[in-house]
Amino acid sequence: MIHVGNCLDILPTLEAESVQTCITSPPYFGLRDYGVDGQLGLEATPAEFVSAMVAVFREVRRVLRDDGTLWLNLGDSYAGSGRGGMSGGGASTLQGGRDSQAQAPRSDREVSSAQRMHCPAVRGSRLPAGLHESQRQAGAIGRAWVPPPAGLKQKDLIGIPWRVAFALQEDGWYLRQDIIWHKPNPMPESVRDRCTKAHEYLFLLSKSPRYYFEADAIAEPVAESSVSRLAQPTLAQQAGSSRVPGKTNGNMKAVGGSETRNKRSVWSVPTVPFKEAHFATFPEKLIEPCVLGGSRPGDLVLDPFLGAGTTAVVAQRLARRWIGCELNPHYAEIARERLAGTSTGFPFGDAA
Questions:
Q1: Where is composition skewed (Gly residues) in this entry (predicted)?
Q2: Which 3-state string (H, E, C) describes 282-310?
Q3: I need a labelling partner for 345 at 20 to 30 A (CA). Which of 37, 155, 157, 206 fits?
Q4: For residue 322, what are the β-bridge partners?
Q5: How many angstroms separate the CA atoms of 313 and 130, rounded?
Q6: pLDDT tens across 54-63, in order?
């Protein structure tokens, strides 16, 4: 079921301890404006964003079963970057002094190409339609340079994912793991003083110290190098003895004769295009292990930031029930259309 509205209004109406796992990706802090009043991610400071996230996931914890889990995807952003470098040109560290910081923001003619690509222009203006006037005036989105939030320097990596994770931990969640979503095909970045970012975080949190986690459902094939190594005779066997010393090049106790191994914490999943009008969508293959590892067939899966409905699509294909909240009615309709053609057992597609 899709509930259209603010998740902070909808979550309190859901039955306590009715959800097995929550898999979601909230709007990232200061990244883009989806054009709907009440959207999270447009807060003036990181602290306000973190506070909003804590409020949302406090309600999520209430509706989770005692053995439930939360899989939370969050990306990061930079302080004072404006998504486009300095008004005087590129984002060189040589231009990062106070004099350059005092420069006036660049004009609307210098809105980034990425913003133009994803947001249609307003008639009579070169600014994208998807940027709130209040955010433009505040300098949070769409300018070459904006003052960094208090406590941060210009060009600082804000560390939003970890700020949220530690705040949730302090609020009562068990922070169980930081999973790295490695993107083999990252978005190109016009930066010359750091590496291009090719990863995001996916945090695994739980309501209780003991929780449902089906490791076998998401196990990986043993690496060929491990198989080759395990096939080698031990030093004792080479010497003609049946005794296996404690340290040899023989069978490793943690692997044994199994053809699979415990899933690693770095998941290489390419980003995929999505033909509908939604800016940020999960790849289905990123969500599949979360659903398989965090729930059983028939369990209820929640996404309080449903967007284009990828969590629900994957849950439905894997014979789970699902429920989602979505603030933007247009995105909710996209999700409904996708789900109308989704049945249990269908293979996962490339578009998320």
A1: 82-91
A2: CCHHHHHHHHHHHCCCCCEEEECCCCCCH
A3: 206
A4: 301
A5: 27
A6: 999 999 999 9
